[in-house]
Predict the structure.
Amino acid sequence: AIASAKPAGTSPKPAGTSQFNNNTWNLLRAVPVTLVDEKDKTLLKKYSLVVGSFKSQNNADFVKRTFNGLGERALVVKNNSGLFYTLLVGGDSNADAIQQLEDFTKKYVEGQSKSRRVSRYGISLDDLGILVHE
C-alpha cells in the first residue's frame, strides 16, 4: 500500500511548515510495477506522484483521463498484487518528487473539501504518496 499523506494519530502541521520533508511521514515507497500501456514508457521516472490506487483498471484510467484533461501528465501502472496506480509523471530525484507533491497538494487539495475533490476529480486525493520505481 502507498503511504497516506495523513497517517492516523498524527496532528496537523502548523501553517507554513512543510509536512512532506519530515521523514516520519514515510511517503516514499518502492513498489515493483509494470506499465499498463507501453506507450507511457517514457513517462515512468524513478519517482512518481501517486494520485490514487485502485482495484479496477477502469477507475485508474478515469483518474488518468481526469488529470490529463487538467493539463497534468498521468499514467497507469499495476503492481504484482493486481492493484492499479494512477501516477503523475515525476522526476529523477527525491527532492523533485517532494516538491511535486507539495505543488500538487497546493493546487488540488488545499482549500477544497473532500466532497468537492471527489465531485471535481472523481477521487478524494487523501492518499497521495511517492512511488520509487527501480
Remarks:
- The longest strand covers residues 47-54.
